[in-house]
Structure formats: C-alpha cells, structure tokens
C-alpha cells in the first residue's frame, strides 16, 4: 500500500507580530535593542555593556522581537506558571539571557516615576501589575524570584492605545533595583512580563 501523506505544504507563514513593551524605564530587551540595535556587531559592547552583549550573543531575536515577550492562556496564574529565575524572560526559553544577573544598564528614576508602554497593536490593558525588587536584593549577582519582589501597584483598565503611561509611587529604595511589570492585555488572555533596571537616585 502506498500512501502519499502530504503534510509539508502548509500555506502558512508567521506574520510580523505586533505587540509592545515598556519603553521607559526601558525593559531589558528594549534597552539593548535601543542602545545597540543599529550597532549590534560592535565588539565594544562586550566591555561597555556586557549584559546586552551576552543577550545579543545568546539570541538576537530577543532584541529584534522586543515586543513579543508574551504568553497566552495563563488565566492570571502568573506566579504558578512562572518559576523563580524565569521572570525576566516571561519563562520564554528563547529569552533566557534576560534572566541572567549582572551589570544591566539602569534608568535613573526618583521615588515617583511614570511607566510607559508602547504597544504597536493597541491591545489595551485589563491591568498592569508592578513590582520592585526588595532593598538588599542585588540584580548584579542574584537571580530574580517572586520572593525578591515588593508588590507596588495594580492599575485599572486602559482603552486600546499605542502609548499608555501610568504613575508609580515608591519609597525607601536606593541603588540598582529591578522593576518587574506584568501587562494583562485586553484582546485575549495574553500576558507580558518584563524586567527594567532602575537606579533610584
Ligand atoms: Cu499583540
């Protein structure tokens, strides 16, 4: 018997996915893309910005697709479905470079600052959840887990827009901290998670 099983001719190609990220204070992948995207082969990066260097070396797609750090269908079970040590990558193995501790370049902020989402797809938000790593946690040497975070705020809903900005108030922080943000988008059960490196000046 001869069966001609045609499985390879799927008329499918991945569309350019449009989503978003926190552009200020910039998420790790966005900051590495913004800083080095036009110059990502520059060997000077290795000494000037070693964490971006290791990320580019590990998988340049992490930067080119800075807008795509999403998972679908988490049902709000962020902690249960995101093991310690995988928060900054949103538990995406292709972005594991973002979970590595080290001298990530920081954005200097005061106690009160604004968080800016740029969303090419205008998904809107059911909410954002914002956390900051505890005082004493060292992003340069420690891998981030849920127990290292202070919960700061959960926002309300935002209508679809390409730019969403919301205020964050903190107190008592100094030096290098990680801001961890979850964006629950509104068009689907679609969750984005990122780390941004802050310097509380
Ligand atoms: Cu999207």
From TrEMBL:
GO terms (molecular function) for this protein are: monooxygenase activity
- Signal peptide segment: 1-18
Domain Chitin-binding type-4 per the UniProt entry, residue ranges: 19-198
- Cited Gene3D superfamilies: chitin-binding protein cbp21 (2.70.50.50)
Query: Record's superkingdom?
Result: Bacteria
Supply the Pfam families for this chain. Answer: LPMO_10
Q: Which UniProt keywords apply?
A: Monooxygenase, Oxidoreductase, Signal
Q: What is this protein called?
A: Lytic polysaccharide monooxygenase
Query: What species is this protein from?
Result: Streptomyces drozdowiczii
